[in-house]
Amino acid sequence: MEPIDHIPAIVTREAVPGDFERYFDEAFQELSAESRHLRFFTAVRELPENVRERLADVDGFRNAAVVAFDAALARPDHPDGKPIGVARWMASPEGPPELSVTVIDAYQGMGVGTRLMDSLLALARKRGVRRIIADVLRENTGMRTLVNRYRAVIQRSGDPLVVRYRIDV
Ligand SMILES: CC(C)(COP(=O)(O)OP(=O)(O)OC[C@H]1O[C@@H](n2cnc3c(N)ncnc32)[C@H](O)[C@@H]1OP(=O)(O)O)[C@@H](O)C(=O)NCCC(=O)NCCS
User: In angstroms, what is the span from residue 102 Cα to ligand 1's centroid?
Assistant: First the structure.
């Protein structure tokens, strides 16, 4: 993965319907196999249609997301800039909604994940979401460091490879 060669201008905003179709595929292309493995628990090359439909379906309440862009790379078909990350919660039939955060490889370790978490949790507070669950692979040091900043409490996950966190928003 090529490191970026300019000073990024990181901005975040809530995702709206249509963002998925516009931005998802190009951002997904910029995830390494390792990042796809850490995010989807398998190094998927292509997401199954039912997963794509769920990710596209943001209503701001049951499923909501915040997208990060590098505004230094804005262009006519990308007025917000280059899409570089997303944090979301998704309703779960079993309990509180589930959190995920993804930052494309070239922008990892630059504070984008922290910005996305801050924005997503502020949005959750506004929308009345009180608790969020995050299932994180045990080996995922980056994500575990990130969620630990938000007073996350470890819960039973039922899977030795997965650490389940509860975050009280
Ligand atoms: C996990 C992830 C979202 C973190 O985003 P990020 O933009 O890289 O995170 P930040 O730059 O805001 O860093 C947050 C903290 O995590 C630490 N961190 C980030 N990546 C790390 C790594 N690989 N190993 C150890 N610590 C790491 C940072 O040092 C920072 O802590 P610090 O401020 O005390 O130094 C991002 O690396 C990613 O998308 N990974 C692949 C997908 C994934 O694992 N998603 C989570 C699935 S639930």
Answer: 9
- Residue-wise pLDDT for 26-57, tens only, equals 999 999 999 999 999 999 999 999 999 999 99
112 lines ligand 1 (CB under 6 A): yes
Nearest CA to ligand 1 atom 19: 142
Is the CB of 39 within 6 Å of ligand 1? yes
* The two three-digit tokens of residue 96, written as one number: 């509180």
For the domain made up of 10-129, the CATH class stated in words is: alpha beta
Domain extent listing, the chain? 10-129
Q: Which of 111, 87, 81 is nearest to 101 (CA)?
A: 87
For the Cβ of 108 lying below 6 angstroms from any atom of ligand 1, the answer is yes
- In the chain, which stretches have pLDDT less than 70? none
- Alpha carbon distance 46, 32 (integer Å): 13
Please give the pLDDT value at position 29.
Answer: 96
